[in-house]
Protein: ABC transporter permease
Organism: Streptosporangium amethystogenes subsp. fukuiense
Amino acid sequence: MTFARRLGVVPSALVLLAAMAAAFAPALFSAADPLRGDLTERLLPPGAAHLFGTDELGRDVFARVVHGSAPSLQAAVIAVGIAVLAGSAIGLVAGTARGRLDDLVMRGVEVLLAVPSFLLILVVVAVLGPGTREVAVAVGVSAAAVFSRIMRAEVIRVRGSGYVEAAAVCGTGRPTVLLTHVLPNAAGPLAALATLELGNAVLTVAAVSFLGFGAPPPAPEWGSLIAAGRPFLASAWWLTTVPGLVIVAVVLAVNHLGHVLRTRSERR
């Protein structure tokens, strides 16, 4: 690991911990009500009284960003969890079965990979309807194919190892071999990919929320905060810039940590 990459681990971890703390305990960061506004304080620029300024209804933007971290990060984590579980199951079946079943499953995975992910997300959201959980499911479905390919490749690699063949010769059942030898050895690359995918999920969830498919207003969500600030770009730049910078900081932090984990996994 290079010195620059080591140097970036600490601030990246701090950014991610701050975002998680804001999601679980927003009162630690802001006591203001994210839904209650004061029209006498509308569109105030960032200052001591309002760290991130106020919006067109006089609501504290900092409080809305803090409270918006919970649904935004929750949707991203759920999406990655769905992608890991579904993709791992598909890849495990394909890598274990081989033959025609493997070919059939992987052709389906390749079809999913050929479809633009954002288009697939919009189709799933159109079927399920708008909402934070629905967006999370849509993002998870779109990312499952990537995990299935990684899991299949790891299963095939590990199956050819000497200790796996020795366990099979000793009479160990296939489910036991999969649980005790194959899955633990395939967990490293999947964990690294899941960390990288988390940053992508945060960005994708914000993009879908920006289009109006996330939590209904006035509930705060990072993407919807940017969308709500578009009419005021010329007069109140902080309404879009501040939530956008928060998203960028979180995505960069998660991606940096993901690259570090991936580098360590490749060295092993």
